[in-house]
Amino acid sequence: MAPEMVTEAAPFSAARRGRAGERALRVLLAAGLALDAAVHADLARFYPAGGRAVSEQALFLAEAAVAAAAALLVLVMVHRRWVHVAALVVAASALAAVMSYRYVDIGAFGPVPDLYEPAWYPEKVIGAVAEAIAVLAAVALLLCRSSRAVTRPVRRP
After folding, report:
1. Cβ-contact 91, 66 below 8 angstroms
2. Predicted confidence (pLDDT) per residue in 109-123, tens digit
């Protein structure tokens, strides 16, 4: 008859589940960013390399590099809040770009070429879905970390 042993085991298992959930979210976030990077790197070859100060191909390759770097940071620097914020910015900006250039003809502005493309094709859909998953995973990670910081118990000597 030791009820204290049962009550002590519950917080440990809840903490372990929380860490496993965060680990799964980090993997999901990194996978979304990695898939986004792969799609952008693959699609870059279909766009012209020159003609303007910033070409479409250069923009796609830059997005691929930034998304790949963010994915690696998410996996390597696991307990850094700024990494999750940076990953959210990368994924959200890519998702905003694909959605806005799909539905709105913004036109060229400054050195940025006109990226309007009013069609969906398989790689574009895969990239958009990967970006959306990465955004959701990053938001969930940030919420998990902030709620854990608020509810963290205070240890007393």
Report:
1. no
2. 888 888 899 999 999
Query: How many CB atoms are closer than 10 A to CB 25?
Result: 22
Distance between CA atoms of 29 and 32, rounded to whole angstroms? 5
Quick check: pTM over 0.70?
yes
Tell me: the pLDDT tens digits for 80-98? 899 999 999 999 999 999 9
Q: How far apart are CA 124 and CA 43, in angstroms?
A: 9
Query: Closest by alpha carbon to 24, among 125, 121, 112, 144?
Result: 144
- CA angle (57 as vertex; 129, 93 as ends), nearest 5: 40
Round to whole Å and give the CA distance between 92 and 48: 25
